[in-house]
């Protein structure tokens, strides 16, 4: 008998990639194990331009989204805007995840909550990487805040490329295969791993495995890390084919799980 899991997605209103890449990876997971099935359920927060002001205003709406999704009795919620978390200061993903979990609990449907921001930090550490090089679609000041957030988590960012695209819809229209050329401009010589897209809105899935094969170092994205944490939270083997080292099934996280969040 198939086991179905309901995946709740807390999504910026202008995001068009979260609901394509994450379902795509979990569809690939279904092909590996026909006894699994996933359905996807979204609630949206208003945001059109990737500015600190809009991101902070959007984050306030995440509580409403978590409550709405808990009405559907999702098995896990994923807050899918990395920079909205990271622009609010180091460690904020833990505060956000706990607050949203508490909102679902108060609604009578305690649901584990992960964030793409927390997932990316966890994913880098799970790979055993201490130094990373990253690509973002953000303006340089926001990329700097992402770097500061990652480095506050004891991970060194050795190099970065900012594509400086302020319109979030335009970010979602980027061709992921362009990353094969963009990454050639990134200095990866000192990096243990590469974050090909430090943003769940910038498409990268088609390029992840290709770039990893080319450079010989682990390659991940915010979306890949989010799927890893979704599978781990559901107590499923974190394997998705052709999605890079983190989802190869060979890497098992030893990071502690927050008991309050995950056990309710």
UniProtKB/TrEMBL annotation:
Can you tell me which residues bind substrate? 15, 81-83, 138, 168, 200-201
What Pfam families has UniProt attached to this entry?
Answer: Amdase
Catalytic machinery residues: 81, 199
> What molecular functions are annotated in GO for this chain?
maleate isomerase activity
Question: According to the UniProt entry, which residues carry S-(2-succinyl)cysteine?
Answer: 81
Q: Which reaction does it catalyse?
A: maleate = fumarate
Q: Which domain of life is it from?
A: Bacteria
- EC top class named in words: isomerase
UniProt-listed Enzyme Commission number(s): 5.2.1.1
Q: Which UniProt keywords apply?
A: Isomerase
PANTHER family xrefs: BLR3294 PROTEIN
**Remarks, miscellaneous:** Reaction is initiated by nucleophilic attack of cysteine at the double bond, yielding a covalent succinylcysteine-like intermediate.
Q: Which HAMAP family match?
A: Maleate_isomerase
**Family recorded in the similarity comment:** Belongs to the maleate isomerase family.
Function comment: Catalyzes cis-trans isomerization of the C2-C3 double bond in maleate to yield fumarate.
Q: How does it assemble?
A: Homodimer.
For this entry, the protein name equals Maleate isomerase
Q: Which organism is it from?
A: Neobacillus niacini
